[in-house]
Write a structure and sequence with these properties.
32% helix, 20% strand
């Protein structure tokens, strides 16, 4: 540990944020305020799967002012942020939780986590699918974003937390202005804007919930560090459900 840091950290199992780089290593350096002790019953892989994404999902729903009884759509629900958002919306009393995914197999897994409706990437999901949504949490963006923006209910809130599908179309701003009669809102969100101690408090609570078996951290696969290329290839191929974890 560094100068002035409590030696009691030595030997403890921890989750740590190393910044935007530095995590693909056998040893890493992190600021003490970005380190959190792990509950005894939570595996390191589960902590990695939940530690970053869980906070994003929590505060994205908070930014959307999600309330019990509302209809929620999670775009890109097969990733770790989406998986956590589905669980939080369902446990928070959502009237319905819809998800977009690319396969029936993933849809079944998401239903097991709390989703009530499974839509394809264009938003089609059969006659029982919700016609509109009060809240959309979007990890994808991409060319189809306006299709889902159009399905916001009056006073609906759309929160974008990623662009894994690429940027929205060039005329996206005009589509947003076209929805002004419904008083919808669109926001981009990063957990970097949340004070560190607040993030850590939520993260600690989620770790405790996961240890109790409430919130589920979904680990797709644990690979040795020297197979990082294989991990990235799987993500590029779109075959991952949850988080791929690299173990030194």
């Amino acid at each position: 540990v560094g100068e002035g840091v409590d030696a009691g950290w030595i030997g403890r199992r921890v989750w740590a944020f190393t910044g935007l780089s530095g995590g693909y290593a056998e040893q890493a350096v992190a600021a003490v305020e970005d380190v959190l002790p792990l509950p005894d019953g939570l595996t390191g892989a589960a902590a990695v799967a939940l530690g970053g994404s869980g906070v994003v999902a929590h505060f994205a729903l908070d930014r959307a002012r999600f309330a019990p009884g509302e209809t929620v759509l999670v775009r890109g629900a097969a990733g770790s942020i989406g998986i956590t958002a589905v669980q939080l919306a369902a446990s928070g009393g959502a009237g319905a939780v819809a998800v977009t995914t690319s396969s029936a197999e993933r849809g079944a897994l998401l239903r097991d986590l709390g989703a009530s409706h499974v839509l394809d990437r264009s938003g089609e999901g059969g006659p029982d699918a919700p016609a509109g949504f009060d809240v959309v949490i979007d990890v994808v963006a991409g060319a189809e974003l306006p299709l889902f923006l159009d399905r916001l209910n009056s006073n609906g809130r759309y929160v974008a937390v990623g662009v894994v599908g690429g940027p929205p179309p060039a005329d996206f701003g005009m589509r947003l202005m076209g929805a002004f009669r419904k008083s919808v809102s669109y926001a981009v969100f990063s957990s970097d804007t949340v004070p560190g101690p607040v993030r850590q408090a939520v993260r600690s609570s989620q770790f405790a919930d996961a240890e109790r078996g409430g919130l589920r951290a979904v680990v797709h696969e644990v690979l040795p560090l020297d197979q990082a290329v294989r991990a990235h290839r799987a993500m590029d191929e779109g075959t991952v459900f949850g988080r791929v974890v690299l173990a030194p």
